Amino acid sequence: MYLKYIRLFSDDSVGDKKYCSDFDYHTYVMRYYLYQCLRKDKYVTDGSFDCINIVAVRKGHEETFSYNSTFDIISYQIEFDFEYYDSAEERDRCHYCIEVYKKALLRIAKYKAIPYERIVVWLNELEAKDYIDTWKFRNMLIREYGLRIHFTACLTTNDFTIRADVYRKPNEPPICGGIVVRTKPDSIHFNHIIKKFPIEGNRLYICDRWNDRFFSLDLNQLAAGNFELHICQSIDIRADDIELFQSLQKSLMYDGNDFDL
Q1: Percentage above 90 pLDDT, the chain
Q2: Can you give the pTM of this predicted structure?
Q3: SS3 letters across 148-190
C-alpha cells in the first residue's frame, strides 16, 4: 500500500462552514504539491494506511493520534494558532502552515514509519517556490497557422490558472498570450479539464472530459498577435443539462474575489 495523501485541514469546531472552506482553499497548494511528490515517490507503508490527515485544532485542545481502519487513514490533531494565522501576511501564514506540517509529521513518525525527511525536503521546495506550483499542461504545434502554443498550469494559495502563450518560433518571445482557465484552488474545480484541445475550422476549444466546450480561441486572431478568449454558448447542450454546463463554465471563470460556497 502506497502513501498517497498528506492533508492539512481545520477541525469543524474551529469556525463556520465558510471559514473552514476558506482555510482548505488557502492551504490546498501544499496538499496538492505533496500529492504529486508522493505519486512519484511511491513510498510503501506498513499496509495499514495510505493517507495522513493533519487536523488543526485551537490552542488548548488536546493533541491526539488516531487510526481509521475502514478508510486506511491515520490522523493527528495538532494545536494551531488561528489568531496568528488570521492576522498574518500571506507569506507568513504559509510558512506557519509548513511548520505545522513538519511538527505534526514528526510526531506521527513516532507511531508509524513515514518518509519524514523526504517530505520535509518537498515542503522546503514549495516554500522556495513562494508556495506556487507550476507545471507544463500541454504544448501544441499548429502547422497550418505556424503557431506553437504552450499551456502552463499554475496553482497558488488563491487560485488555479491555465495560461496560453503563443509563439511563432521556439526561441523568440510570445506574440500574445493570456489566461484560458481560472478556478478556485482545488482540483475538484480543474481536474475535469482535458489536455486535448480539439480544433475545428479556425477554433481551438477548451473542453472537459465529457467534451463540453466552454471556451475557444480564434487561431486567426492568435496568428495576428491578438489574444481573446471566447465564451461558448450552451446551444448543443440538452435542456436539462444547461444549468450544470453554465455552472461549470462559471467555475472556470473565477474572479478571485472570494471563496464563496
Answers
A1: 81
A2: 0.92
A3: EEEEEEEECCCCEEEEEEEECCCCCCCCEEEEEEEECCCHHHH
